[in-house]
């Protein structure tokens, strides 16, 4: 098998995939948190790995930057490789005064200036929301780990270098917790193909107040968020077992 962007074989991916934008962050997660790791994709350098966390098969793969890129990888993982749950583990910028560098935010939903969800939803406004169960388990996992999180709305921007500085105050006024570039598209793809998606982000810079983490820090220092994401999967499994 194989797709235009993934050359893994059947069964190479677990049903749950953690997805950072940065493929080097994917490698870091796999090498730091998973056992029995094997690389299952390297097309275009978009590293994908499968391994085990506490015996549970789990995959991690980069999705690149922006909604077009995450839309390709999310669709191929769901449709061609049978992924059922995608958890983005990203970085974001803050606009609110009460959101600081390294805060972990969990997206309930994501606003966007992208038109992709209108394209897929017959021109209507689609509410790009995270899967409730995954999100609830992420919040509970964070609490159990003693890792503070903020839960609320994200903004998925089409432009990293946006020439409209005035929108930042608008985002702040509307309570946006983090500005990133994929969640709204990921939620749209998951809805289109009947999968589940969640987004966790660590704040890597404060867009209004200033201050930022280095690219190396963004690549390999988001361990709190990774633990929350991995424990989310474990909690989600336990909840599903109990329900059946
Ligand atoms: O660090 P990642 O997960 O890539 O997330 C954020 O960083 C990139 C921009 O620098 C965008 O992909 C944005 O969503
Ligand atoms: O997309 C992003 C990611 C981090 N910081 C930003 O300002 N935007």
TrEMBL record:
GO terms for biological process: purine nucleoside catabolic process. It is an enzyme of class 2 (transferase). Residues 17-218 form the Nucleoside phosphorylase domain. A purine D-ribonucleoside binds at residues 5, 180-182, 204-205. Phosphate binds at residues 21, 25, 44, 88-91. Pfam families: PNP_UDP_1. The record marks 218 as: Important for catalytic activity. Its EC number is 2.4.2.1. It catalyses: a purine 2'-deoxy-D-ribonucleoside + phosphate = a purine nucleobase + 2-deoxy-alpha-D-ribose 1-phosphate; a purine D-ribonucleoside + phosphate = a purine nucleobase + alpha-D-ribose 1-phosphate; uridine + phosphate = alpha-D-ribose 1-phosphate + uracil. PROSITE patterns: PNP_UDP_1. The active site is at residue 205. Transmembrane segments: none annotated. GO terms for molecular function: purine-nucleoside phosphorylase activity; uridine phosphorylase activity. GO terms for cellular component: cytosol. Keywords: Glycosyltransferase, Transferase. Homohexamer; trimer of homodimers. Belongs to the PNP/UDP phosphorylase family. Catalyzes the reversible phosphorolytic breakdown of the N-glycosidic bond in the beta-(deoxy)ribonucleoside molecules, with the formation of the corresponding free purine bases and pentose-1-phosphate. This is Purine nucleoside phosphorylase DeoD-type.
């Amino acid at each position: 098998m194989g797709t235009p962007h993934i050359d893994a074989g059947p069964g190479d991916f677990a049903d749950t995939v953690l997805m950072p934008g940065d493929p080097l962050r994917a490698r870091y997660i796999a090498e730091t948190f998973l056992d029995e790791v094997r690389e299952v994709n390297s097309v275009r350098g978009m590293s994908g790995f499968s391994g085990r966390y506490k015996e549970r098969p789990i995959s991690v793969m980069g999705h690149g930057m922006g909604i077009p890129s995450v839309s390709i990888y999310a669709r191929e993982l769901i449709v061609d490789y049978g992924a059922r749950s995608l958890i983005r583990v990203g970085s974001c910028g803050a606009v609110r005064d009460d959101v600081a560098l390294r805060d972990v935010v969990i997206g309930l939903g994501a606003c966007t200036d992208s038109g992709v969800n209108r394209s897929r939803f017959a021109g209507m406004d689609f509410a790009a929301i995270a899967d409730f169960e995954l999100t609830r388990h992420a919040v509970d996992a964070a609490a159990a780990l003693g890792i503070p999180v903020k839960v609320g709305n994200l903004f998925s921007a089409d432009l990293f270098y946006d020439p409209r500085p005035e929108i930042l105050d608008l985002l702040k006024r509307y309570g946006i917790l983090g500005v990133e570039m994929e969640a709204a598209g990921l939620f749209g793809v998951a809805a289109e193909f009947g999968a589940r998606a969640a987004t966790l982000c660590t704040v890597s810079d404060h867009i209004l107040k200033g201050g930022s983490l280095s690219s190396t820090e963004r690549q390999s220092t988001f361990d709190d968020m990774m633990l929350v994401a991995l424990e989310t999967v474990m909690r989600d499994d336990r909840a599903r077992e109990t329900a059946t």
